Each structure stands twice: as structure tokens, then as C-alpha cells.
Backbone:
């Protein structure tokens, strides 16, 4: 059957509504980098918030730079490191990919990811200052 030309002046459903008339777009049709950018932004924000808290709790971290790297640039042994401490340059480098991607099965959701990031920041900072992560409230040096 030949298709009849549209005579109605009403606009067709635009791309805003998608093929099936629903608002928004599914994850599948979004540009592939948008969700990744969001995850990186959330990682940076979570690290920044944890660092602010730690600097207020442990004054010895005031001059320490916290940096974020994707992966360690050096050879790992049995375990992929989640951070690197450099006392000489006063810095702690947190590795985003191992922290985010090496979560136990069933724990790869937003809240578990945030807890893993915060835990890595706290553990790296505690190791840097030679304390235990659960000593956060203690001010006895």
C-alpha cells in the first residue's frame, strides 16, 4: 500500500519524546560518555568531601595533596593498589578504577561505590599519618 502524504498541520512527535512517545531517553541511546563523566564527577566529589572531613580531624593532613589517577603507573604485585603514598612530595594518589571496579559482586551500586571511595580515602590517609582509620575522632598523637 502506498503511503499517504500527511495533510495534518500537527507536528509529529519529536525526538524529545523518542520513538514510543515516552519522555526522556534510555541509557542505551544516550551518548556513551555522559554517564562516565557523571561517575568521574561523583568520584571526585566523594573524595573531596572525605578529604575535607579528614583535614578537619587530622591537622597533619593540612599540607598533603590528594590526587586522583585512573590506574597505577607501576607494576602491581598480587593485588592492584588502590592508592599510593608519597611522603617526600606530601601527596596521596587515589586510583579511581581499582577503587570503583573491584567491588564484590552485588555491591556495584551508588551507595556501595561511595562507601568504597570514602573507605579508600580514610584508609590511605590513616596509613599516611601512621594511624588506624577508626582513630578519626582521637586527637592524641
Residues:
Amino acid at each position: 500500500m502506498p503511503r499517504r502524504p500527511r495533510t495534518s498541520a500537527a507536528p509529529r512527535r519529536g525526538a524529545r519524546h523518542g520513538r514510543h512517545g515516552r519522555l526522556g531517553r534510555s541509557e542505551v541511546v544516550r551518548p556513551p560518555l555522559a554517564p562516565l563523566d557523571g561517575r568521574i564527577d561523583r568520584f571526585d566529589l566523594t573524595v573531596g568531601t572525605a578529604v575535607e572531613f579528614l583535614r578537619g580531624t587530622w591537622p597533619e593532613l593540612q599540607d598533603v595533596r590528594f590526587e586522583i589517577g585512573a590506574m597505577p603507573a607501576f607494576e602491581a604485585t598480587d593485588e592492584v593498589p588502590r592508592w599510593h603514598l608519597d611522603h617526600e612530595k606530601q601527596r596521596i594518589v587515589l586510583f579511581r578504577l581499582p577503587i570503583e571496579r573491584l567491588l564484590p559482586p552485588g555491591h556495584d551500586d551508588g551507595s556501595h561505590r561511595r562507601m568504597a571511595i570514602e573507605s579508600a580515602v580514610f584508609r590511605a590517609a590513616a596509613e599516611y599519618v601512621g594511624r588506624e582509620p577508626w582513630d578519626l575522632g582521637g586527637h592524641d598523637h
Q: What stands out?
A: The first helix runs from residue 33 to 57. The domain at 39-131 is CATH 3.30.2010.20 (Zincin-like). The chain is about 35% helix and 10% strand. The two ends are 86 Å apart (CA to CA).
